[in-house]
Amino acid sequence: MPGYEFFGPEERKEINDVLDTGIFMRYGFDGPRKGIWKAKELEQAISQKLNVAHTHLVSSGTAALTTVMAALGIGAGDEVIMPTFTFVASFECIFSVGATPVLVDVDDTLTLDPKAVEAAITPRTKAVMPVHMCGAMADMDALKAICEKYKLILLEDACQSFGASYKGKALGTIGHAGAFSFDFVKTITCAEGGGIVTNDEETYIKCDAYADHGHDHLGVDRGADLHPYVGYNYRISELHAAVGLAQVRKLDTFLEIQRKTKKIFKDALSAIPEVSFRRLPDASGDSATFLGFFLPEESQARAAAAAMKAAGLAAFYWFDNNWHYIRNWEHFKQSSVMSRFAPGLQQAMELYKVKQFPVSDALMSRCICTPINLGWNEEEVKQRAEKLVNAVKSAL
Ligand SMILES: *Cc1c(COP(=O)(O)O)cnc(C)c1O
C-alpha cells in the first residue's frame, strides 16, 4: 500500500485507450467510444474478484457511502451506529443523507466493539456501519448476529480494506452492502474513485440511479431515460476507471508483498514482551496494509512513535491525529456545518459537545500503526524491521 507506488505501463495503456477515443464519460456515445467501456469493465472485474453480484463505481469512497446510504433508505431521524476510530468521511456521509451518527467504542480489533453496538441500539437505529480500518476486519459474525436480532441494516465501510476478507468472504460483501475508496492513497487507486458492492439487486439499481441524476439507464437514448427517483451526480470518469482497471489486476501482487513484509515486521516485534498486537478476527484475511500494535502505557506509545519517526519510519499515532479519531474532531463535536442541520439532528448532536470515550481512549492512546509499503526491497525490509524493534525498545 498504496497502489500508486506501482503505477506503470499497465495504467498508461488503459488511460491511452480512453485518450484515443476521447470519450471520457461512462455512459452513451456508443459509436465513437469504439467498444471502450472502462467503468463497466472495472465493475465486472471487481464483482468477479470479490465474488459479489453487483458493483457500482462512483467518484469517491465518500460518494459511495452517501449513495449506498440513500439506496438503503437511510435518512432523516435514522441513527447509524459507527466507531470512534475511522476516517471523517464515515460521519460526513451520514450527515449527507440527513441521518444521525451514533458513535460507539472500538475494541482491540480497532473496529466496532459488538457489545458497545448492542448497548447503543434505540428504536431509531436503522443501520450499523463497521469500518474495516487499516486493511483488516471487524468481528463480522458478532455484528451480523446483532443486526439480524434487531433487524438492522449492516453496511460495511470497507474503504481501507479492498482485497481483505473474513472467513473466506471479501470485506464489503458480508453485510447488505459495502463501500470502497480508490482515492490516491488506498490499497488500489483510480486517482480518485469509489465503489459500492452488494448482492441485493434493488440496492444496486438504486445506487446506479442515485449516482447519475436518477437516470434509470434502461433505454438507448440517455435523454429519454426515466427518473423514478431524485439522484445526484457522483459518476466516475472513464479516465479514472481506466487507472483502476490496471490496478485491480495488480491486487494479488500487492497483497502478497504486504503479507510477506508485514510478517517480517510482526515476527521481529513479537520478541518484545511488552508489545501486544491488534486482534484480527480472521488473520488469514488481513490485507496487511498496516501493522497495528499496543504498548502498555500512553507515554511509551508516544515515545515509541517519536522514536520511529526519528529513525525514518512512518508511525501513525491515531490518538493525536486530526482525521481518524474522535478526540480531535472539533468540527464534528461542535457541529460546525456551513448550512444548518435539520432541527432533530442538531439536537442529537448536542451530546458530542461533552461526551467522552474513555474506553476508546484507553486503547487508542496506546496504539501505533505503521504502514506496509510495496516498493521496499528485501534489504530495506530487514533494516526497517531492525529500526522498528530498536525504536520500540528505546521507549520502554
Ligand atoms: C478513504 C476513506 C473514505 C472516503 O474515501 P474517499 O475516496 O477519500 O472519499 C471513507 N471511509 C474510510 C474509512 C476511508 O479510509
Automatic annotation (TrEMBL):
A Pfam match: DegT_DnrJ_EryC1
Keywords from the named record: Aminotransferase, Pyridoxal phosphate, Transferase
The record, for InterPro entries, names: DegT/StrS_aminotransferase (IPR000653), PyrdxlP-dep_Trfase (IPR015424), PyrdxlP-dep_Trfase_major (IPR015421), PyrdxlP-dep_Trfase_small (IPR015422)
Q: Which residues form a coiled coil?
A: none
Gene Ontology process terms (BP):
polysaccharide biosynthetic process
What the entry lists under SUPFAM superfamilies is as follows: PLP-dependent transferases
In-chain residues carrying the UniProt-annotated modification N6-(pyridoxal phosphate)lysine: K186
* Residue positions of the active site: K186 (proton acceptor)
Per its UniProt entry, which superkingdom is the organism in? Answer: Bacteria
Q: Name one GO molecular function term.
A: pyridoxal phosphate binding
Q: Which family does the record assign?
A: Belongs to the DegT/DnrJ/EryC1 family.
Name it.
Answer: Aminotransferase class I/II-fold pyridoxal phosphate-dependent enzyme
Species in which this protein is naturally found: Chitinophaga oryziterrae
Organism placement in taxonomy: Bacteria, Pseudomonadati, Bacteroidota, Chitinophagia, Chitinophagales
